[in-house]
């Protein structure tokens, strides 16, 4: 008995020392309509706690979050904690009809999860229809107490959240597109911390200002929260040193321009090493799909040296200096940037692969159904837009969430026959036959055994148009071991694999007319959606989901659903 007590005591001491510095943080998110004025016009905008952008959550590695979400709006809602691993807590992941039914108007749900082994910048956003156009905020994870950043401590830290604004109700925009089968209207502005900036009407009074002092080094936590657009970001006359992305540290590298796909985050250091003045930070589109309409405006914020501020001088502030941004279609700059990322430490990349998967991703066109009027088929040549992975256009269930159906063994909600390879091999990035344009709708999952080592080749196609697709996997980080253009060729392209220090991300920009290869270990049981983070493409079906089976024992098994899980 004495030995047992000693062991118990030692275990308790270890447990307490690990958890002593871990906190439980509790928050309340009220989803509500709030009057928001942008571009001269006031809208009843869906927000969290009346704030736009929503509250920034700041936690430490190891902390637990409990966020009660109360829906006082008129739409169904869920919240996704983008990039959080959610180990065994899939019920808190948030995608509507995947891990939970939506929180109905008047309902509430408490998300409970622990953030373990992740540090840097993540974010949270609605994962229901197009609500994330305005329902989003930063999630900052600092090192555990007594630990520090692997770079010199910055003087200040500022979240820079890039967004996209419609001079309309975003829900109406997507509903109209669903009705007509055409592409949705493009946005009217981009924003930095929810402000469009000086280049738009009725906006310059509220332009976001970020202060810096001569000689200091500050950390900018850049998040692309735009709905449908990868974005370039630049600060006039200043270099940026990248030190992290998607809450993983990187080997530092210096660049004058960033490109983030929707969903991605990038942590950069900026030095106050220029003459004290005011400098524009600016963001505008990276547009890789040819002939597709896009919002070609530019959002700005102001980097202001303290000594140059008018508060200090009582003056007319100098006009900020504008950076020159890359051309909208500058894929070379994007390639150079994305190939600069390396993990800070040697990476534990899985090598003996159990599941070698090949997924084509791309758009499609459905023929007009015979019972539809012409006005419902306003895609190219009287069609309706769609999208797919491996020729399956993903359809979400309506009466149960996928995770609930899996957990409770409810039949008829999904099948587990998502194809491991394209049903038809073709010249993916070449000239294609129109017969490839119409995918098959389905709710198909791919089953993974617990602990299996997975490699996925993500191959863009030129069906309708090739495009850079930001592909996001829920519940996991993955290593991006290679990227390239054209059709992936296992004979020659495997020589390009970086198995030493590839970057660890949760969202990968699959190059336009190209491919990316990712690897991860399936160590988190549950149902995890993988989708394009351009929301227009999710609506069209550019998604699939993995069903990761439980392993052995409690620590390899998904927790039971919480009692307040919303029911459909």
Automatic annotation (TrEMBL):
Top EC class of this enzyme: oxidoreductase
UniProt GO BP: lignin catabolic process
Names of the cofactor(s): Cu cation
GO molecular function: copper ion binding; hydroquinone:oxygen oxidoreductase activity
EC number: 1.10.3.2
Range of residues in the leader sequence: 1-22
Protein name: Laccase
Species this chain originates from: Gossypium mustelinum
């Amino acid at each position: 008995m004495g030995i047992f007590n000693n062991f118990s005591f030692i275990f308790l001491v270890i447990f307490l020392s690990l958890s002593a510095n871990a906190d439980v943080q509790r928050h309340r998110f009220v989803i509500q309509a709030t009057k928001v004025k942008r571009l001269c016009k006031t809208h009843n905008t869906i927000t969290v706690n009346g704030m736009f952008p929503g509250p920034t959550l700041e936690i430490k590695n190891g902390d637990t979050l409990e966020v009660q979400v109360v829906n006082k709006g008129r739409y169904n809602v869920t919240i996704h904690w983008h990039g959080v691993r959610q180990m065994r807590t899939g019920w808190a992941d948030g995608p509507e009809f995947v891990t939970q039914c939506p929180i109905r108007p008047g309902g509430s749900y408490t998300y409970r999860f622990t953030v373990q082994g992740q540090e840097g910048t993540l974010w949270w956003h609605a994962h229901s229809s197009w609500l994330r156009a305005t329902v989003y905020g930063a999630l900052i994870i600092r090192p555990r107490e007594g630990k520090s950043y692997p770079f010199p401590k910055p003087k200040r830290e500022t979240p820079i959240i890039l967004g996209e604004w419609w001079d309309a109700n975003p829900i109406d925009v997507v509903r109209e597109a669903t009705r007509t089968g055409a592409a949705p209207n493009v946005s009217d502005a981009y924003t930095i911390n929810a402000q469009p900036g000086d280049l738009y009407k009725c906006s310059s009074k509220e332009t976001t200002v970020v202060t810096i002092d001569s000689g200091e080094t500050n950390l900018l936590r850049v998040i692309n929260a735009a709905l449908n657009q990868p974005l370039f970001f630049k600060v006039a006359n200043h270099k940026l040193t990248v030190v992290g992305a998607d809450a993983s540290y990187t080997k530092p590298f210096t660049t004058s321009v960033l490109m983030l796909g929707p969903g991605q985050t990038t942590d950069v250091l900026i030095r106050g090493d220029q003459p004290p003045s005011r400098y524009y930070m600016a963001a505008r589109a990276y547009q890789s799909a040819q002939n597709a309409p896009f919002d070609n405006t530019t959002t700005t914020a102001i980097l202001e040296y303290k000594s140059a501020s008018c508060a200090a001088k009582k003056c007319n502030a100098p006009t900020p200096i504008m950076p020159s941004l890359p051309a909208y279609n500058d894929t070379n700059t994007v390639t150079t940037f994305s190939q600069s990322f390396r993990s800070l430490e040697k990476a534990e990349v899985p090598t003996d692969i159990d599941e070698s998967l090949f997924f084509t991703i791309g758009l499609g066109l459905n023929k007009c159904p015979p019972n539809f009027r012409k006005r419902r088929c306003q895609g190219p040549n009287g069609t309706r837009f769609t999208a797919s992975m491996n020729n399956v256009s993903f359809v979400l269930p309506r009466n149960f969430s996928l995770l609930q159906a899996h957990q409770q063994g409810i039949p008829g909600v999904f099948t587990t026959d998502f194809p491991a390879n394209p049903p038809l091999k073709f010249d993916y990035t070449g000239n294609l036959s129109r017969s490839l344009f119409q995918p098959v709708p389905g709710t198909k999952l791919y089953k993974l055994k617990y602990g299996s080592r997975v490699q996925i080749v993500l191959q863009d196609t030129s069906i309708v148009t090739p495009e850079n697709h930001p592909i996001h996997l829920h519940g996991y980080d993955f290593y991006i071991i290679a990227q390239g253009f054209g059709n992936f060729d296992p004979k020659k392209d495997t020589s390009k694999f970086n198995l030493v220090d590839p970057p660890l991300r949760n969202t990968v920009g699959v190059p336009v007319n190209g491919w990316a290869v990712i690897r991860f270990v399936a160590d988190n049981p549950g149902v995890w959606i993988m989708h394009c983070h351009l929301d227009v493409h999710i609506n069209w079906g550019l998604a699939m989901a993995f069903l990761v089976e439980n392993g052995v024992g409690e620590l390899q098994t998904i927790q039971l659903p919480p009692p307040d899980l919303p029911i459909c």
